């Protein structure tokens, strides 16, 4: 059973077709990686799935319901959680409050019912020591962790990660992979856009390659990476 | 449960006790002080109410309206209309003032929410002007030159009792009753806004103010928050407007819809006191009243000084006087920050920074 299905999804900005007739399914529980060179339309595709952009044509089905025309907020309430490529913390709130607002509104619960969960997520994402600090005071790694933690606080069925490993050191990246693996192991479906291929390959079971807005390959990561077409595109940025 | 969430601080506990004592003193004040002082306190309390609502709109909701005088005027005219045309007791009509303000606020918001930032500000101002010009056509309430509450409508609920018990004239008794109403309204406003900010909606407001896209991505209904804040502010501002003109007893469109008296001064109060805090408007209204008392005899010089002071504060203390004080001392009388404490840390290492 697929948790997410895209059917002939297209989106243009003026004359430029950024997403061109994209169709794919994500089975429940899978971790799907999306790669592609700069300007391939990865972030646009991501924003079409989360509802930050609307599609020109095609349909998006999430968890059995057509969500093509629903807002980003409603997709969150239906079980979609996302991180932003450039971390977008609520800077005037503390780290803990960032999670509380996500948990209470994303899940429709009262504050006292989510406090424990939020504290647990902060422990798992190693932010517990910064719980009472303003989110604006966090370092880059901590901001990336907060993106992940805040998305987790909404208790998503599908977690969308947008270049969450970018800009991190090798050690930081390893720690983050560990956390994402744990989240995946707990049953959450993951779609992950990433340039850092080794990070991606440590987690995902399936890989989708995007170029000029089109899907040029989808399948087992090893097979995809070995294909000539992908090697040509990736020559130069392959890690 | 091992998780404890706390918002209180030592300062807030002391402030709470002081507030209760101050409130008790304010309730019995009419027994001990003269009519002039009661009128001054009435002015302070109603301006505080207006400031607290504008602060909710602009400081927390990010909705910088310069048309709140529309709701003061609507409240005032509703009160007079209900008293003169329907024969309602003015005190009972106060609630109606808020309701009518909300009724007008719905189409206003529908129109103004399509505008962003400065355009929103101008849009709200335009709406206020339209309402003022429309009300000026209402001949039953005196048209452009206004009207007075007739003596029959002035003996509203409680005045006779106050006049007898405190042994004062009817006019003084009216001032005392309106003062008590203003006190109740101001206290309810401060408490209500504080309760809203401490709730999960308060967190959502802050999230929307910080980053709308991220707030929506975690399930916050940003549009609903804007509506909520705008309608609450209209309701409270309408009641305050009704109350202010119940005390004045005379109304005219130019006075009731005065952008200077009910919007510019209110913005000044919030800005010098500290926008985005509950303490700010309280400090601001006291500073404003002091300045007004000191400079009342200097005519337009007073407005120049007020404006210059506003500019200086915005340049050198953008968080206002209270913001400056809070940043230096870390004291918050109305804390909204939730601090996480774990009594039984699940880590082997105690969480060093989490005791707040």
From TrEMBL, chain A:
InterPro entries membership: AAA+_ATPase, ABC_AA/LPS_Transport, ABC_transporter-like_ATP-bd, P-loop_NTPase
Keyword Nucleotide-binding included in the entry's annotation: yes
GO cellular component: plasma membrane
UniProt keyword list: ATP-binding, Nucleotide-binding, Transport
GO BP terms, alphabetized: D-alanine transmembrane transport; L-alanine transport; L-isoleucine import across plasma membrane; L-valine import across plasma membrane
Listed Pfam families: ABC_tran (PF00005)
A GO molecular-function descriptor: L-valine transmembrane transporter activity
Name of the protein described by the UniProt record: Amino acid/amide ABC transporter ATP-binding protein 1, HAAT family
Top-level taxonomy: Bacteria, Pseudomonadati, Pseudomonadota, Alphaproteobacteria, Rhodobacterales
From TrEMBL, chain B:
One Pfam match: BPD_transp_2
Domain of life: Bacteria
Topology term for the membrane: Multi-pass membrane protein
Subcellular location, record wording: Cell membrane
Spans traversing the lipid bilayer: 14-34, 41-60, 66-86, 93-113, 176-197, 227-246, 266-291, 303-325
GO CC terms of this entry: plasma membrane
Protein name as annotated: Amino acid/amide ABC transporter membrane protein 2, HAAT family
Species, as recorded: Loktanella fryxellensis
């Amino acid at each position: 059973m697929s948790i997410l299905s895209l059917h002939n999804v297209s989106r243009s900005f003026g004359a430029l077709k950024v997403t061109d007739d994209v169709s794919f399914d994500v089975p429940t529980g899978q971790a799907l990686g999306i790669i592609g060179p700069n300007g391939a339309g990865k972030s646009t595709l991501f924003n079409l799935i989360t509802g930050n952009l609307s599609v020109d044509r095609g349909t998006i089905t999430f968890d059995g319901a057509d969500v093509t025309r629903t807002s980003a907020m409603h997709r969150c309430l239906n079980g979609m959680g996302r991180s932003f490529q450039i971390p977008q913390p609520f800077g005037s709130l503390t780290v803990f409050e960032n999670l509380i607002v996500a948990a209470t509104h994303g899940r429709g619960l009262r504050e006292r019912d989510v406090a424990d969960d939020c504290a647990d997520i902060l422990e798992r994402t190693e932010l517990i020591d910064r719980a009472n600090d303003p989110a604006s005071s966090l370092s880059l790694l901590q901001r990336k962790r907060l993106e992940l933690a805040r998305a987790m606080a909404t208790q998503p069925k599908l977690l969308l990660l947008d270049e969450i490993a970018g800009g991190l050191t090798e050690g930081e990246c390893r720690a983050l992979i560990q956390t994402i693996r744990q989240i995946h192991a707990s049953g959450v479906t993951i779609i992950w856009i990433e340039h850092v291929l080794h990070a991606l390959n440590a987690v995902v079971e399936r890989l989708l390659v995007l170029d000029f807005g089109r899907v040029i390959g989808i399948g087992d990561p090893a097979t995809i990476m070995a294909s000539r077409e992908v090697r040509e595109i990736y020559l130069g940025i392959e890690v | 449960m091992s998780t404890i969430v706390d918002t209180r601080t030592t300062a807030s506990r002391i402030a709470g006790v002081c507030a209760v004592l101050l409130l008790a003193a304010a309730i019995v004040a009419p027994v001990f002080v003269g009519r002039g002082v009661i009128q001054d306190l009435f002015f302070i309390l109603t301006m505080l109410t207006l400031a607290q609502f504008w602060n909710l709109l602009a400081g927390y909701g990010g909705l910088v309206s310069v048309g709140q005088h529309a709701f003061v005027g609507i409240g005032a005219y509703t009160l007079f209309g209900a008293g003169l045309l329907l024969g309602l007791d003015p005190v009972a009509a106060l609630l109606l003032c808020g309701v009518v303000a909300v009724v007008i606020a719905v189409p206003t918001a529908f129109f103004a929410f399509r505008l962003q930032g400065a355009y929103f500000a101008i849009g709200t101002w335009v709406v206020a002007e339209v309402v003022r010009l429309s009300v000026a056509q209402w001949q039953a309430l005196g048209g452009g030159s206004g009207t007075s509450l007739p003596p029959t409508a002035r003996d509203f609920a409680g005045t006779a009792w106050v006049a007898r018990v405190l042994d004062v004239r009817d006019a003084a008794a009216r001032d005392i009753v309106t003062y008590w109403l203003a006190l109740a309204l101001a206290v309810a406003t401060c408490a209500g806004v504080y309760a809203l900010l401490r709730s999960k909606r308060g967190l959502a407001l802050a999230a929307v103010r910080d980053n709308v896209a991220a707030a929506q991505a975690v399930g916050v209904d940003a549009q609903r928050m804007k509506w909520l804040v705008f309608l609450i502010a209209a309701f409270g501002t309408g009641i305050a407007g009704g109350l202010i003109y119940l005390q004045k007893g005379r109304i005219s469109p130019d006075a009731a819809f005065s952008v200077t008296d009910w919007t510019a001064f209110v913005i000044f109060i919030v800005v010098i006191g500290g926008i985005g805090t509950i303490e700010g408007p309280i400090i601001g209204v006291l500073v404003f009243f002091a300045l007004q008392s000191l400079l009342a005899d200097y005519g337009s010089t007073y407005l120049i000084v007020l404006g210059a002071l506003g500019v200086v504060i915005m340049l050198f203390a953008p968080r206002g006087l209270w913001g400056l004080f809070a940043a230096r001392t870390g004291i918050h009388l109305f804390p909204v920050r939730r601090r996480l404490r774990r009594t039984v840390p699940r880590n082997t290492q105690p969480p060093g920074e989490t005791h707040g």
